[in-house]
Design a protein that fits this description.
Length: 154
């Protein structure tokens, strides 16, 4: 099972999702069965570490984002990953434009694994205040646990 999280820059939301979901998957005993990665639809930050604010907010919850480096999603990702999960609707729209017709996996919104959240999108915190980073972390952590629980039931 291979899961790719995708946001716009791959420096805030999807790296956070990669690390938070890896922890949730490990706690659910799934770590050896799932490959987890992240990417961005944009190319502005390729090769760069995550945003310093994303790193520091995540670190306060025990997540280490520092080793990650941004990369841009490409058509080849649809051959490798089974599930490609977008952090917001505009990212999903972009992914739908590059989705090969042969892709047989799941392409959708990450937060749809947790309908009780009452929102389907993780807000883009880049350049915003600390409350938006915390809100993004809250949503990502909750959805990570929900996704790990769903996969553990299979
Ligand atoms: P992310 O946040 O999509 O959560 O990584 C962003 C980071 C950078 C930009 C936009 C969103 N940017 O325009 O550079």
């Amino acid at each position: 099972m291979r899961i790719l999280f995708v946001c716009l820059g791959n420096i805030c939301r999807s790296p956070t999702a990669e690390v938070a979901f890896r922890q949730a998957a490990t706690q659910a005993g799934l770590a050896d069965r799932i490959e987890i990665a992240s990417a961005g639809t944009g190319d502005w930050h390729v090769g760069k570490p995550p945003d310093p604010c994303a790193i520091s907010h995540a670190a306060r919850r025990g997540y280490d984002l520092k080793p990650l480096r941004a990369r841009q999603v490409g058509a080849g990702d649809f051959s490798h990953f089974d599930w490609i999960l977008a952090l917001d609707a505009s990212v999903l729209e972009t992914l739908e434009t590059i989705r090969p017709s042969t892709f047989g996996g799941r392409l959708g919104l990450f937060l749809d694994v947790a309908p009780s959240l009452g929102t389907r999108e993780v807000p883009d915190p880049y350049g915003k205040g600390p409350e938006v980073y915390e809100r993004a972390l809250d949503l990502i952590e909750y959805a990570s646990r929900a996704l790990a629980a769903e996969l553990a039931r299979r």
